[in-house]
Amino acid sequence: MKAFSLLLLFSAVASLAFGQSPAAPTRIDFCGQQYELPAGAVLESPYEVKGDKFDITLIYLNYNALSTAPAEFAKQRRKKMKGEPLQEITCFIQDSPAKAYKFGYRTEAGMAYELIAYGVTKGQPVLVQITTDIDPYQSTDIPAFARQFVHLAK
């Protein structure tokens, strides 16, 4: 009887443990620094965050790819999205000088804009893709969470 009671207790505890899903991640790591996700944002992968007004993808590159990959990626995205002509701009990735391409395109909900920034920060070549519904002319046009990674003026 005692063994049966222990078995029953063990199975009840085990079923509770297996019934719980793991907590959703609340942070993203970029170049060794942790960033807290804003309310309403979801970590789609270890390198991609979807928020209410933005999507951001963080891509690590090697130094060889840094010279050609960003331009090719931007051209392919613009073609896929049937976007406006690419504009080249300067920006900062985590306070390191960088370059970027930006373009707009039509969606069912209106216009969307992509900013594809690339450069070296903390010794690591990176590409940061931000999609938002506001054309980023100045840093404040970039959502606050994404602005931690890329901003337009120092």
UniProtKB/TrEMBL annotation:
<protein>
    <recommendedName>
        <fullName>DUF1795 domain-containing protein</fullName>
    </recommendedName>
</protein>
<keyword id="KW-0732">Signal</keyword>
<feature type="signal peptide">
    <location>
        <begin position="1"/>
        <end position="23"/>
    </location>
</feature>
